[in-house]
Amino acid sequence: MTTHAIYALGFTVAHSEADSTVGENDSAASTPRGLLPLLFVGNAAMYALYIGVGSVLLPLQIEHIDAANKVANLGLVGGIAAIFATVFNPVAGALSDRSGRRNPWILGGGIAAIAAMGLLGSVNTVLLVAIGWCAGQAVMNIYQAAITSVVPDRVPFARRGIASAAVGLGLPVGSVIGVLLASGFSDHYRTGYLVLGALVALAAVVFTAGTREERMPAKQPAPLRDQLAAFLSVLREHDFRWAFIGRALLVLGYFAVVGYQLYILQDHISLPGDLEPEDAVAILTPISAVGMTLSTVAGGVLSDRLNRRKLFVGLSAGLAAAAQLIPVITPTWPGMIAFAAVNGVAFGCFMAVDTALVTMVLPKAEDAARDMGVLNIANAGPQILGPFVASAVVSLGGYTPLFLFGGVLSVLGALAVAPIRSVR
Question: Mean of the per-residue pLDDT values for the chain?
Fold first, then answer.
Protein backbone atom coordinates (compact mmCIF):
# COMPACT_ATOMS: atom_id res chain seq x y z
CA MET A 1 0.00 0.00 0.00
CA THR A 2 1.09 3.55 -0.78
CA THR A 3 0.11 7.09 0.03
CA HIS A 4 -2.30 6.89 -2.86
CA ALA A 5 -3.88 3.66 -1.71
CA ILE A 6 -4.77 4.93 1.71
CA TYR A 7 -5.67 8.37 0.40
CA ALA A 8 -8.10 6.88 -2.10
CA LEU A 9 -9.88 4.84 0.57
CA GLY A 10 -10.12 7.81 2.90
CA PHE A 11 -11.29 10.06 0.07
CA THR A 12 -14.20 7.71 -0.64
CA VAL A 13 -15.20 7.64 3.02
CA ALA A 14 -15.01 11.42 3.21
CA HIS A 15 -17.36 11.92 0.30
CA SER A 16 -19.73 9.27 1.59
CA GLU A 17 -20.06 11.05 4.91
CA ALA A 18 -20.32 14.49 3.37
CA ASP A 19 -23.05 13.49 0.96
CA SER A 20 -25.23 11.85 3.60
CA THR A 21 -27.85 14.56 3.37
CA VAL A 22 -28.16 14.09 -0.33
CA GLY A 23 -28.16 10.35 0.11
CA GLU A 24 -31.24 10.46 2.32
CA ASN A 25 -33.15 11.76 -0.66
CA ASP A 26 -31.83 9.35 -3.25
CA SER A 27 -32.64 6.06 -1.55
CA ALA A 28 -34.82 5.13 -4.50
CA ALA A 29 -32.03 5.67 -6.96
CA SER A 30 -30.02 2.74 -8.20
CA THR A 31 -26.35 2.23 -8.92
CA PRO A 32 -25.61 2.28 -12.67
CA ARG A 33 -25.44 -1.26 -14.00
CA GLY A 34 -21.95 -2.71 -14.04
CA LEU A 35 -20.40 0.23 -12.19
CA LEU A 36 -19.22 -1.70 -9.13
CA PRO A 37 -17.23 -4.35 -11.05
CA LEU A 38 -15.72 -1.59 -13.17
CA LEU A 39 -14.76 0.36 -10.05
CA PHE A 40 -13.00 -2.74 -8.79
CA VAL A 41 -11.14 -3.19 -12.09
CA GLY A 42 -10.16 0.49 -12.29
CA ASN A 43 -8.87 0.62 -8.73
CA ALA A 44 -7.12 -2.75 -8.88
CA ALA A 45 -5.13 -1.60 -11.93
CA MET A 46 -4.19 1.64 -10.15
CA TYR A 47 -2.96 -0.18 -7.06
CA ALA A 48 -1.11 -2.72 -9.22
CA LEU A 49 0.98 0.08 -10.72
CA TYR A 50 1.61 1.85 -7.42
CA ILE A 51 2.61 -1.30 -5.54
CA GLY A 52 4.46 -2.99 -8.42
CA VAL A 53 6.55 0.10 -9.09
CA GLY A 54 7.13 1.10 -5.48
CA SER A 55 7.88 -2.36 -4.10
CA VAL A 56 9.87 -3.96 -6.92
CA LEU A 57 10.70 -2.01 -10.06
CA LEU A 58 11.83 1.27 -8.53
CA PRO A 59 14.15 -0.35 -5.94
CA LEU A 60 15.61 -2.58 -8.66
CA GLN A 61 16.21 0.34 -11.01
CA ILE A 62 17.86 2.44 -8.30
CA GLU A 63 20.05 -0.47 -7.27
CA HIS A 64 21.07 -0.97 -10.89
CA ILE A 65 22.11 2.69 -11.16
CA ASP A 66 24.05 2.93 -7.88
CA ALA A 67 24.09 -0.21 -5.74
CA ALA A 68 26.37 1.26 -3.07
CA ASN A 69 23.96 4.09 -2.24
CA LYS A 70 20.68 2.36 -2.98
CA VAL A 71 19.16 2.86 0.50
CA ALA A 72 19.71 6.62 0.58
CA ASN A 73 18.73 7.06 -3.07
CA LEU A 74 15.49 5.12 -2.67
CA GLY A 75 14.62 7.27 0.34
CA LEU A 76 15.33 10.43 -1.63
CA VAL A 77 13.34 9.41 -4.71
CA GLY A 78 10.46 8.02 -2.68
CA GLY A 79 10.28 11.10 -0.46
CA ILE A 80 10.36 13.57 -3.35
CA ALA A 81 7.70 11.62 -5.24
CA ALA A 82 5.47 11.41 -2.15
CA ILE A 83 5.69 15.17 -1.63
CA PHE A 84 4.86 15.78 -5.28
CA ALA A 85 1.90 13.36 -5.19
CA THR A 86 0.49 14.91 -2.02
CA VAL A 87 0.64 18.40 -3.52
CA PHE A 88 -0.58 17.42 -6.98
CA ASN A 89 -3.53 15.23 -5.90
CA PRO A 90 -5.85 18.11 -4.95
CA VAL A 91 -4.79 19.92 -8.13
CA ALA A 92 -5.80 16.90 -10.19
CA GLY A 93 -9.07 16.68 -8.28
CA ALA A 94 -9.80 20.34 -8.92
CA LEU A 95 -9.31 19.82 -12.67
CA SER A 96 -12.03 17.18 -12.90
CA ASP A 97 -14.25 19.10 -10.46
CA ARG A 98 -14.12 22.22 -12.59
CA SER A 99 -14.90 20.31 -15.77
CA GLY A 100 -17.82 18.47 -14.20
CA ARG A 101 -16.58 15.27 -15.88
CA ARG A 102 -14.68 12.20 -14.68
CA ASN A 103 -14.42 9.83 -17.65
CA PRO A 104 -12.18 12.03 -19.84
CA TRP A 105 -9.70 12.44 -16.98
CA ILE A 106 -9.74 8.73 -16.19
CA LEU A 107 -9.14 7.88 -19.85
CA GLY A 108 -6.50 10.57 -20.37
CA GLY A 109 -4.60 9.75 -17.20
CA GLY A 110 -4.74 6.03 -17.91
CA ILE A 111 -3.42 6.29 -21.45
CA ALA A 112 -0.73 8.77 -20.37
CA ALA A 113 0.46 6.18 -17.83
CA ILE A 114 2.04 4.20 -20.67
CA ALA A 115 4.17 7.16 -21.74
CA ALA A 116 5.08 8.05 -18.16
CA MET A 117 6.14 4.48 -17.34
CA GLY A 118 8.09 4.28 -20.58
CA LEU A 119 9.94 7.46 -19.62
CA LEU A 120 10.65 6.18 -16.11
CA GLY A 121 12.03 2.89 -17.37
CA SER A 122 14.34 4.54 -19.90
CA VAL A 123 16.34 6.85 -17.59
CA ASN A 124 19.65 5.94 -15.96
CA THR A 125 20.44 8.51 -13.27
CA VAL A 126 18.88 8.97 -9.84
CA LEU A 127 17.86 12.54 -10.66
CA LEU A 128 16.06 11.46 -13.82
CA VAL A 129 14.40 8.57 -11.97
CA ALA A 130 13.02 11.09 -9.46
CA ILE A 131 11.74 13.29 -12.28
CA GLY A 132 10.30 10.31 -14.13
CA TRP A 133 8.49 8.99 -11.05
CA CYS A 134 7.06 12.46 -10.40
CA ALA A 135 5.76 12.46 -13.98
CA GLY A 136 4.22 9.07 -13.29
CA GLN A 137 2.65 10.44 -10.11
CA ALA A 138 1.17 13.36 -12.08
CA VAL A 139 -0.69 11.22 -14.62
CA MET A 140 -1.71 8.63 -12.02
CA ASN A 141 -3.08 11.32 -9.71
CA ILE A 142 -5.20 12.64 -12.60
CA TYR A 143 -6.54 9.11 -13.02
CA GLN A 144 -6.91 8.52 -9.28
CA ALA A 145 -8.60 11.80 -8.38
CA ALA A 146 -11.23 11.23 -11.05
CA ILE A 147 -11.94 7.56 -10.34
CA THR A 148 -12.21 8.06 -6.56
CA SER A 149 -14.84 10.75 -7.21
CA VAL A 150 -17.06 8.33 -9.11
CA VAL A 151 -18.58 6.84 -5.95
CA PRO A 152 -19.97 10.10 -4.51
CA ASP A 153 -20.95 11.24 -8.01
CA ARG A 154 -22.87 8.20 -9.19
CA VAL A 155 -23.66 5.87 -6.27
CA PRO A 156 -26.72 6.46 -4.04
CA PHE A 157 -25.88 6.89 -0.38
CA ALA A 158 -27.60 3.63 0.56
CA ARG A 159 -25.16 1.78 -1.70
CA ARG A 160 -21.99 3.60 -0.66
CA GLY A 161 -20.88 0.81 1.67
CA ILE A 162 -20.79 -1.87 -1.03
CA ALA A 163 -19.27 0.60 -3.49
CA SER A 164 -16.48 1.42 -1.04
CA ALA A 165 -15.96 -2.32 -0.57
CA ALA A 166 -15.51 -2.70 -4.34
CA VAL A 167 -12.93 0.09 -4.25
CA GLY A 168 -11.22 -1.34 -1.18
CA LEU A 169 -11.05 -4.86 -2.60
CA GLY A 170 -8.99 -3.47 -5.45
CA LEU A 171 -6.14 -2.83 -3.01
CA PRO A 172 -5.19 -6.40 -1.99
CA VAL A 173 -6.00 -7.81 -5.43
CA GLY A 174 -4.14 -5.04 -7.24
CA SER A 175 -1.18 -5.36 -4.89
CA VAL A 176 -0.80 -9.04 -5.69
CA ILE A 177 -1.16 -8.49 -9.45
CA GLY A 178 1.31 -5.60 -9.43
CA VAL A 179 4.00 -7.42 -7.47
CA LEU A 180 3.62 -10.62 -9.51
CA LEU A 181 3.93 -8.70 -12.79
CA ALA A 182 6.83 -6.59 -11.55
CA SER A 183 8.67 -9.62 -10.18
CA GLY A 184 8.12 -11.48 -13.43
CA PHE A 185 9.92 -8.68 -15.27
CA SER A 186 12.61 -8.12 -12.63
CA ASP A 187 15.35 -8.87 -15.17
CA HIS A 188 13.75 -6.51 -17.68
CA TYR A 189 12.34 -3.74 -15.53
CA ARG A 190 11.84 -1.39 -18.49
CA THR A 191 9.33 -3.86 -19.91
CA GLY A 192 7.78 -4.23 -16.46
CA TYR A 193 7.10 -0.50 -16.30
CA LEU A 194 5.40 -0.59 -19.71
CA VAL A 195 3.27 -3.60 -18.77
CA LEU A 196 1.97 -1.90 -15.62
CA GLY A 197 1.31 1.32 -17.56
CA ALA A 198 -0.56 -0.66 -20.22
CA LEU A 199 -2.63 -2.36 -17.50
CA VAL A 200 -3.82 1.01 -16.22
CA ALA A 201 -4.53 2.21 -19.77
CA LEU A 202 -6.57 -0.92 -20.49
CA ALA A 203 -8.53 -0.48 -17.26
CA ALA A 204 -9.21 3.17 -18.18
CA VAL A 205 -10.53 2.18 -21.62
CA VAL A 206 -12.72 -0.56 -20.16
CA PHE A 207 -14.07 1.71 -17.41
CA THR A 208 -14.93 4.66 -19.64
CA ALA A 209 -16.38 2.44 -22.36
CA GLY A 210 -18.55 0.59 -19.87
CA THR A 211 -19.90 3.55 -17.90
CA ARG A 212 -21.87 6.58 -19.00
CA GLU A 213 -21.83 9.81 -17.07
CA GLU A 214 -23.81 13.01 -16.99
CA ARG A 215 -21.97 16.27 -16.71
CA MET A 216 -21.92 17.42 -13.08
CA PRO A 217 -22.12 21.05 -12.00
CA ALA A 218 -18.65 22.56 -11.90
CA LYS A 219 -17.20 22.88 -8.41
CA GLN A 220 -14.83 25.55 -7.13
CA PRO A 221 -12.15 24.51 -4.62
CA ALA A 222 -12.08 26.23 -1.24
CA PRO A 223 -9.50 29.03 -0.86
CA LEU A 224 -6.20 27.94 0.69
CA ARG A 225 -6.73 30.23 3.68
CA ASP A 226 -10.07 28.56 4.45
CA GLN A 227 -8.53 25.10 4.16
CA LEU A 228 -5.74 26.02 6.59
CA ALA A 229 -8.23 27.50 9.07
CA ALA A 230 -10.33 24.33 8.89
CA PHE A 231 -7.26 22.16 9.49
CA LEU A 232 -6.27 24.07 12.61
CA SER A 233 -9.86 24.16 13.85
CA VAL A 234 -10.53 20.42 13.75
CA LEU A 235 -7.20 19.55 15.40
CA ARG A 236 -8.25 21.56 18.42
CA GLU A 237 -10.91 18.92 19.07
CA HIS A 238 -9.55 16.57 21.76
CA ASP A 239 -10.74 13.20 20.44
CA PHE A 240 -10.08 13.92 16.78
CA ARG A 241 -6.55 15.14 17.61
CA TRP A 242 -5.68 11.90 19.37
CA ALA A 243 -7.18 9.82 16.54
CA PHE A 244 -5.06 11.85 14.10
CA ILE A 245 -1.89 11.25 16.14
CA GLY A 246 -2.54 7.51 16.46
CA ARG A 247 -3.12 7.12 12.72
CA ALA A 248 0.01 9.13 11.84
CA LEU A 249 2.24 7.10 14.16
CA LEU A 250 1.09 3.70 12.95
CA VAL A 251 1.21 4.64 9.26
CA LEU A 252 4.76 5.96 9.69
CA GLY A 253 5.84 2.76 11.43
CA TYR A 254 4.25 0.60 8.74
CA PHE A 255 5.65 2.33 5.69
CA ALA A 256 9.10 2.93 7.13
CA VAL A 257 9.58 -0.83 7.00
CA VAL A 258 7.42 -1.98 4.08
CA GLY A 259 8.99 0.54 1.71
CA TYR A 260 12.37 -1.21 2.09
CA GLN A 261 11.09 -4.76 1.85
CA LEU A 262 13.11 -5.70 -1.23
CA TYR A 263 16.38 -4.44 0.24
CA ILE A 264 15.58 -6.15 3.55
CA LEU A 265 15.23 -9.45 1.69
CA GLN A 266 18.49 -8.79 -0.17
CA ASP A 267 20.68 -7.67 2.70
CA HIS A 268 19.14 -8.77 6.01
CA ILE A 269 17.17 -11.98 5.61
CA SER A 270 18.65 -15.43 5.02
CA LEU A 271 16.67 -16.69 2.03
CA PRO A 272 16.72 -20.28 0.76
CA GLY A 273 19.49 -20.73 -1.81
CA ASP A 274 17.22 -20.90 -4.86
CA LEU A 275 14.90 -18.03 -3.90
CA GLU A 276 15.58 -14.60 -5.36
CA PRO A 277 14.53 -11.49 -3.37
CA GLU A 278 12.15 -10.38 -6.16
CA ASP A 279 10.40 -13.74 -6.05
CA ALA A 280 10.27 -13.55 -2.26
CA VAL A 281 8.39 -10.23 -2.50
CA ALA A 282 5.94 -11.91 -4.88
CA ILE A 283 5.29 -14.57 -2.23
CA LEU A 284 5.03 -12.23 0.76
CA THR A 285 2.64 -9.74 -0.86
CA PRO A 286 -0.27 -12.19 -1.38
CA ILE A 287 0.21 -13.51 2.16
CA SER A 288 -0.05 -9.99 3.55
CA ALA A 289 -2.97 -9.15 1.24
CA VAL A 290 -5.00 -12.18 2.34
CA GLY A 291 -4.40 -11.34 6.00
CA MET A 292 -5.33 -7.72 5.37
CA THR A 293 -8.55 -8.65 3.56
CA LEU A 294 -9.72 -11.12 6.20
CA SER A 295 -8.93 -8.84 9.14
CA THR A 296 -10.57 -5.84 7.48
CA VAL A 297 -13.86 -7.72 7.28
CA ALA A 298 -13.55 -9.45 10.65
CA GLY A 299 -12.44 -6.32 12.48
CA GLY A 300 -15.25 -4.24 11.05
CA VAL A 301 -17.93 -6.83 11.84
CA LEU A 302 -16.72 -7.63 15.37
CA SER A 303 -16.21 -3.99 16.34
CA ASP A 304 -19.79 -3.29 15.19
CA ARG A 305 -21.25 -6.21 17.13
CA LEU A 306 -19.33 -5.46 20.31
CA ASN A 307 -19.60 -1.70 19.88
CA ARG A 308 -15.91 -1.40 20.78
CA ARG A 309 -13.57 0.61 18.57
CA LYS A 310 -10.68 1.64 20.83
CA LEU A 311 -10.13 -1.97 21.90
CA PHE A 312 -9.69 -3.20 18.32
CA VAL A 313 -7.60 -0.21 17.26
CA GLY A 314 -5.31 -0.64 20.25
CA LEU A 315 -4.99 -4.40 19.83
CA SER A 316 -4.26 -4.17 16.10
CA ALA A 317 -1.63 -1.48 16.65
CA GLY A 318 -0.08 -3.61 19.38
CA LEU A 319 -0.13 -6.61 17.03
CA ALA A 320 1.66 -4.52 14.40
CA ALA A 321 4.37 -3.79 16.96
CA ALA A 322 4.71 -7.50 17.74
CA ALA A 323 4.99 -8.26 14.02
CA GLN A 324 7.98 -5.93 13.73
CA LEU A 325 9.83 -7.99 16.33
CA ILE A 326 9.58 -11.25 14.36
CA PRO A 327 12.36 -10.46 11.84
CA VAL A 328 14.48 -9.09 14.69
CA ILE A 329 14.24 -12.35 16.63
CA THR A 330 14.48 -14.59 13.59
CA PRO A 331 15.88 -12.88 10.46
CA THR A 332 14.97 -15.88 8.30
CA TRP A 333 12.62 -16.62 5.45
CA PRO A 334 10.02 -18.32 7.74
CA GLY A 335 10.31 -15.28 9.99
CA MET A 336 9.48 -12.96 7.09
CA ILE A 337 6.49 -15.11 6.13
CA ALA A 338 5.20 -14.82 9.68
CA PHE A 339 5.90 -11.07 9.65
CA ALA A 340 3.96 -10.59 6.41
CA ALA A 341 0.96 -12.52 7.71
CA VAL A 342 0.79 -10.89 11.13
CA ASN A 343 1.53 -7.41 9.81
CA GLY A 344 -1.17 -7.73 7.13
CA VAL A 345 -3.73 -8.84 9.71
CA ALA A 346 -2.78 -6.00 12.05
CA PHE A 347 -2.79 -3.25 9.45
CA GLY A 348 -6.03 -4.37 7.80
CA CYS A 349 -7.91 -4.46 11.11
CA PHE A 350 -6.42 -1.14 12.21
CA MET A 351 -7.39 0.72 9.04
CA ALA A 352 -10.93 -0.68 9.00
CA VAL A 353 -11.79 -0.01 12.63
CA ASP A 354 -9.79 3.20 12.97
CA THR A 355 -11.65 4.72 10.02
CA ALA A 356 -14.94 3.86 11.73
CA LEU A 357 -13.62 5.35 14.98
CA VAL A 358 -12.65 8.58 13.28
CA THR A 359 -16.11 9.01 11.76
CA MET A 360 -17.47 8.84 15.32
CA VAL A 361 -15.25 11.63 16.65
CA LEU A 362 -15.84 14.11 13.83
CA PRO A 363 -16.87 17.44 15.41
CA LYS A 364 -19.69 18.29 12.96
CA ALA A 365 -21.57 16.06 10.55
CA GLU A 366 -21.86 18.84 7.99
CA ASP A 367 -18.06 19.19 7.90
CA ALA A 368 -17.36 15.44 7.62
CA ALA A 369 -15.73 15.57 4.20
CA ARG A 370 -13.48 18.43 5.20
CA ASP A 371 -12.42 16.76 8.43
CA MET A 372 -11.82 13.38 6.81
CA GLY A 373 -9.64 15.24 4.35
CA VAL A 374 -7.64 16.50 7.32
CA LEU A 375 -7.27 12.90 8.48
CA ASN A 376 -5.74 12.04 5.11
CA ILE A 377 -2.80 14.22 6.11
CA ALA A 378 -2.13 11.61 8.82
CA ASN A 379 -2.01 9.08 5.97
CA ALA A 380 0.05 11.07 3.49
CA GLY A 381 2.38 13.00 5.79
CA PRO A 382 4.06 9.98 7.41
CA GLN A 383 4.58 8.46 3.99
CA ILE A 384 6.44 11.59 2.96
CA LEU A 385 8.64 11.34 6.04
CA GLY A 386 8.91 7.54 5.91
CA PRO A 387 11.52 7.17 3.12
CA PHE A 388 13.75 9.89 4.57
CA VAL A 389 13.51 8.56 8.13
CA ALA A 390 13.92 4.92 7.11
CA SER A 391 16.99 5.59 4.96
CA ALA A 392 18.58 7.51 7.84
CA VAL A 393 17.88 4.69 10.33
CA VAL A 394 19.22 2.00 7.97
CA SER A 395 22.29 4.05 7.07
CA LEU A 396 23.14 4.58 10.74
CA GLY A 397 22.33 1.16 12.18
CA GLY A 398 21.02 -1.31 9.61
CA TYR A 399 17.67 -3.05 9.29
CA THR A 400 17.27 -4.35 12.84
CA PRO A 401 16.93 -0.79 14.24
CA LEU A 402 14.44 -0.09 11.43
CA PHE A 403 12.16 -2.91 12.62
CA LEU A 404 12.53 -1.72 16.24
CA PHE A 405 11.75 1.84 15.16
CA GLY A 406 8.58 0.65 13.40
CA GLY A 407 7.59 -1.35 16.46
CA VAL A 408 8.00 1.59 18.84
CA LEU A 409 5.87 3.80 16.59
CA SER A 410 3.16 1.13 16.50
CA VAL A 411 3.12 0.93 20.31
CA LEU A 412 2.82 4.71 20.52
CA GLY A 413 -0.02 4.54 17.98
CA ALA A 414 -1.82 2.03 20.20
CA LEU A 415 -1.39 4.23 23.26
CA ALA A 416 -2.64 7.31 21.40
CA VAL A 417 -6.23 6.03 21.26
CA ALA A 418 -6.46 5.68 25.05
CA PRO A 419 -7.25 9.36 25.74
CA ILE A 420 -10.22 9.36 23.33
CA ARG A 421 -13.32 9.90 25.47
CA SER A 422 -16.38 9.74 23.23
CA VAL A 423 -15.84 6.23 21.81
CA ARG A 424 -15.46 2.94 23.64
Answer: 84
Report whether pLDDT(28) > 50: no
Quick one: DSSP state of residue 19?
T
Which residue segments constitute the domains of the chain, with CATH numbers given? 1-221 (1.20.1250.20), 224-424 (1.20.1250.20)
Which one, of 77, 91, 66, 79, lies nearest residue 120 by Cα? 77
Q: Is 363 helix (H, G, I), strand (E, B) or coil?
A: coil
pTM score above 0.70: yes
Strand partners, 332: 270
pLDDT of residue 13: 41
Helix extents (H) in 330-398: 333-360, 368-397
Rounded CA-CA distance 74/61 in Å is 10
Q: According to the 3-state scheme, what is the secondary structure of 198-251?
A: HHHHHHHHHHHHHCCCCCCCCCCCCCHHHHHHHHHHHCCCHHHHHHHHHHHHHH
Q: Torsions phi, psi of 82, nearest 5? A: -65, -40
Cβ(34)–Cβ(211) under 8 Å?
Answer: yes
So what's the pLDDT on residue 94? 78
DSSP secondary structure code for residue 307 in this structure: T
Average pLDDT, integer, range 58-86: 91
